[in-house]
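Convert to structure. Protein one:
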Amino acid sequence: MSHTPNLLLQNVRPIGGNFDGTDTVDIRIAEGQIVEISAELDSKEDEELHDANGSYLSGGWMDMHVHLREPGYEHKETIETGCKSAAFGGFTEVACMPNTNPAIDSRDVVEFVKNNAEQFSVDVHPIGCVSKERKGKSIAEMGDMKEGGAVAFSDDGDPVYNSQLMRVALEYSSMLDMPIINHEEDLKLSRPGHMHEGRVSARLGLDGTPGIAEETMIARDILLAKFTGGHIHVAHISTAKAVDLVRQAKADGVNVTTEVCPHHFDLTDEEIERRDFDTNVKMHPPLRTQKDVEAMIEGLADGTIDAICTDHAPHAIQEKEVEFIYAPNGIIGLETAWSISVRQLLDSGALELAELITKFVEKPREILNIDIPKIEEGTPANLTLFNTDQEWSYREELVQSKSHNSPYLGESLKGRAEAIYNNGQFVINTI
């Protein structure tokens, strides 16, 4: 990483806004601002020069659903290591979930996270709790947390189970113009499930979580959002029927948005059998069926699913190296999200490049009411430099996260983020 307020990016192909990714240009950045865009620029003495050799350049990517674990669980991840992981994956901004210790349920904890992240190349936007201590009993100080810099509210890790509490939260959502992000799970239907309930779970003898556990909670929240006028955001959607529910709700004018993780449009529950109970394919919601995977891709293609997120969930090695039923849910995802998206969405023809970039750049920020970075003269430089065709291997020594719980370790991937520029810092990813 270099503190590089002055930079000349040569031979980049911008995509987004007025650019379609076909023409090669040079972009001059001075004091963290884009000051010049032209077909050919000469470098100055006081600026760093980087020849991109025709790689794409977009506004900086954003992941609106990550777990940075700090404060309280720094043995899994810290704000610093999470930001390094994000930068390697091409993300210049992340929104972090509040299931920390203490939980992000007050303005002082929101400000602690923001202050600790100020020095890094990745902007961190805290998501505050819906309920105090994430206990689901009383509403948290939402207005105060917004003043401190929170961008949304969630009890993620657990659902907002109490319907009256969710109603109140959505009413606040309407007043504050901020989304309520719910972990959609009917606990009475889902527990003690360790994977998707279906043929594979029956064959393996594991307790399963049925899709209906997710769908009933989504249906409730859609009805409450319609009733209150609040904005419900469905976290990490995973079933075909859930996508249908959101699609219909959008058609009915309900203020509902949703996101999907790469593992849910790439892997199925059969991975658990194929990988002999590898705990790095244990997550929540669980990996579903091929039909569900196809529904995720279709939902992205038709706009039902707004954004791609990772649900980056670091766990220490000793926590995952246990029997499958005792392992915590979750995988790291920041570093492989682009490559999996290229494979499943771009190379398959499901999405065009410009459509895919929208899911990474514009949609997460629209949902969270955050300024969308632009490739224009006179704007702050918040940029991701990337390709769609470079083959690379995701190896242990490349992992920037403090944790290594990924099902993609050792895999050959294609397409990667080459660098980011944000906050006057230019971070080049070497592999």
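Protein two, convert as well:
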Amino acid sequence: MPEVKRFTREVMTAWAAMSVYPEAERLVRELVAEAVGAPFEVVWLHHGESIQVEVREKTDGQDFGPPADAVAWGVTFTSSLRTRWARLELPGGEPVQSDEWLLEAAHGPGWLGFLADASDLLAGTLNPDMVPAIIAQIVVPRLASWCAVYTDQDGLGELRPAYLWHADETQIDVMRDELEEIALPADDAPAVLPMSEWQALAYPLTARGRRLGVMCLGRRDRFPDEAMQIAEDLSRRAALALDNARLYAQQAAANRALQRSLLPPDEPTTPGLDFHVIYEPAGENNEVGGDFYDLFPIAEGVWRFAIGDVCGTGPEAAAVTGLARHTLRLLAREGYGVAAVVGRLNQAILEEGERARFLTLLHGQITVTPEGLDIRLVSAGHPEALRLRPNGVVEVVASPQSLLGVFPEAKFQEDNLRLTPGDVLLGVTDGVTERRSGGRLLDDDGGLAKLLAECIDLSARAVAERIRRAVQDFAPEPSADDLAILVLRAP
């Protein structure tokens, strides 16, 4: 019996239902007293508006009468198990806060443990839309019966509902309607809300000198001083978590916008070309990648393309990427040849001085002819460009030359080739060739060429997708490098 009572107390404490603990203890004591001496187990179930205790035991099938305080009771049988159960209603249809827990927490390690756990939960997300939900579900039912979080979503000072949680989920809509009639405090100090059936408190969510929102919480009885102390401390931690999440989201949005600005605005229409590009930045949204690609027309039936990789990531790499992309377009439309464009881009990068970054680049011009596609290529320190023949032969088609941003005296020469119908040209960044699994790279022993040789008779899109899938399957962990794949197929 002492173990049963201890277990029941732990359950009522965890469910914040200590107000019904005396009845729960009497109920379980009566049910256990009916046990016939065989091994049994006690199970507590929470049904929202009520709690139910079950005593499960092997038995000969004898019956029993209604236990004290139970609003419903019964017996169920299986072939070898009898389960005797009884149910208690919770006051108000909702869990009741355990002031006993608050007293212990506020004067001992329990408080610090609760706040530490709350901090871990709040720090576990950088999504500003998730933080209000976490705040409310930390507060309910430990500190209050309900919690509503309002936030300044547009930075104009107007507070709007972000999340509402109630211990009794069926009361959420009722609570929302009631809160619509309440005026929120405008100052940065805790305040009491004028609500007749609740003691309701409002705590400002202020971080780094900025008011981000308000945390409101309520319970039917009076808030103990310990609860208000914990709630105020929690509001400060919640505000800091919300501010951090917002700052991260703003930075991520800015970086995504910057990344988009470094790529072609739309997928180009390419009559006479079977062309496809795959681009995947690595890592989180908080860093701009260094890989880029481009495809644009310069005359009727004449196209320029580029695929490149700037050393490093972040704003410095993005600056060089933007410089490269716009320089390639501008000089190509001014009539400069492929080699001349690459040479002038090399000089432009060097003129950036300390802001410069190394750049590898595969740049070419495509001319549509009746016989196929005539290509002029320059490979400046870039992974090898490969051509796949319809008979399965794969060959390197561009001679390696100096990468950009290193040597002022570097000179560049064009390589010429023709893609006849069925030929495929493949260009990739080192996110493909240097994909690592243990001590092996994907391109060891001509691994990329072997992959390409398996792509006979596939469209440009199918070839690119097969290469991407091979990169993903090569190692179990996510890639730590950006990835770009450019495929051109002569129709």
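Residues 304 and 365 are 4 Å apart (CA to CA). The longest helix spans residues 225-261.
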